[in-house]
TrEMBL record, chains A, B:
Pfam family, one: VIT1
Cellular localisation: Endomembrane system
TM ranges: 21-42, 48-71, 155-175, 181-200, 212-231
UniProt keyword list: Membrane, Transmembrane, Transmembrane helix
PANTHER family the record matches: FE(2+)/MN(2+) TRANSPORTER PCL1
GO biological process: intracellular manganese ion homeostasis
The UniProt record lists the keyword Methyltransferase: no
GO CC, any one term: endomembrane system
Protein name (Swiss-Prot/TrEMBL): VIT1/CCC1 family predicted Fe2+/Mn2+ transporter
Alphabetized GO MF terms: manganese ion transmembrane transporter activity
Primary location class: membrane
Length: 239, 239
């Protein structure tokens, strides 16, 4: 059985960053696939496909990381704002806040004299008091991940998983192998990229791996097909 | 002063979805700008720019929402997994877990007989016990937003804010106005879109609005410039 304490670790590769890894990886794989599909449809040479693919990886990956940065920062700011509100309420609406602590501990099964003693201890230390309100009343925990960490992990995952659909083109260029069927390989590799995400999220969370892979392949596949038509079909239609 | 209880509400437009709105909006504005820049660089007609823009909104918005869905689901699953671990530990390592509750309440300022009474009440109800371990030991709160809600809000924001850089082209087509300077207007409107996000995240979280706008314009601007070169410059270079 896993140690539950692992939730406190914040190393880049720890399970804590699984949500960012999944988010960045899925979007990276699908947008790179869209670029490869569009470039293939336009009959670009392999070096051009690769340059466009890497350009998308860097530009779209950076764009997504900027979105992640401000999104994470908004969460952190919201937490700090609620905490400031609780501090204000304790200073200005003390009796109401004491009653809220009493209600929180009554719900935990405390009553009578013991309940009053517990309320007295909690409300004797303002930090403990605010901390209790945040966790019990607002159900908010302080996120231990910084916006820089979540944005970095999103970028890393976008690049790493997003490179997979490009891999066949890079391989063909470097080793000068057959240029046939490269787009077919890109389709298969995009499926592999989505499957890796599916396997990862399932094993980390002790869920059924087959179901996890089927989910990412199904929804990711729909997104890839939409991206294919958006990037390739429409472009050719209007040219 | 705001009511802190607002954190419990889960309406689509409540502040709870600010992180998703920010994330989807920033990525929507920048990727649409990239499409508009690329299409303008390739001298496409206005209807083509609009079709490509909407195709990107739907395809990339859907791709991002799929990423968000699995990312949110991974968070929910991680919470449930840790909860199952705590249940297992209480059943199998009871004494260790009792000692952990004792340590948690000692840190809150309880001691002696009162501490023992508190530990006895908390550990008399398994739900309260597990809930305490989740909040106090693991610092995890149950996310009240479902993956469907966060993915839906991401898609909505991607479409809404992502449409803004396209607006000048749609306006020029519908009202048959001058076709000059459309790309310039798209650049300005992208700045407006990023500023809206900046204003929104600052006002909701009681932060300095000017600073919030400057942040999104600065990092979003870098991402937009990267996207511009990726979509337009490189494509022309290799053709």
């Amino acid at each position: 059985m896993e140690e539950p304490h692992a939730a406190g670790k914040t190393g880049l590769l720890s399970r804590d960053f699984l949500p960012e890894f999944v988010y960045g990886g899925i979007d990276g794989a699908i947008t790179t696939f869209a670029v490869v599909a569009g470039a293939t449809g336009a009959s670009f040479d392999i070096p051009v496909v690769i340059v466009l693919g890497f350009a998308n990886l860097i530009a779209d990956g950076f764009s997504m990381s900027v979105g992640n940065f401000f999104s994470s920062k908004a969460s952190v700011d919201a937490y700090e704002k609620h905490k400031a509100t609780e501090h204000w309420e304790i200073d200005n609406l003390r009796e109401t806040e004491v009653e809220e602590i009493r209600e929180i501990y009554r719900k935990k099964g405390f009553e009578g004299e013991l309940l009053e003693q517990v309320v007295a201890v909690i409300t004797s230390n303002k930090e403990v008091w605010v901390d209790t309100m945040m966790k019990e009343e607002l159900e908010l925990s302080k996120d231990q991940k910084s916006p820089y960490q979540t944005a970095g992990m999103t970028f890393f995952s976008f690049l790493l998983i997003g490179f997979i659909p490009l891999a066949a083109y890079v391989f063909a260029l470097i080793f000068d192998t057959s240029k046939d069927n490269l787009f077919l390989y890109a389709c298969i590799l995009t499926g592999v990229a989505l499957s890796i995400i599916g396997v990862l999220k399932s094993t980390v969370n002790n869920k059924n791996v087959l179901q996890g892979v089927a989910e990412t392949l199904f929804l990711g596949g729909i997104a890839a097909i939409l991206a294919y038509f958006a990037g390739d079909f429409l472009e050719n239609l209007f040219r």
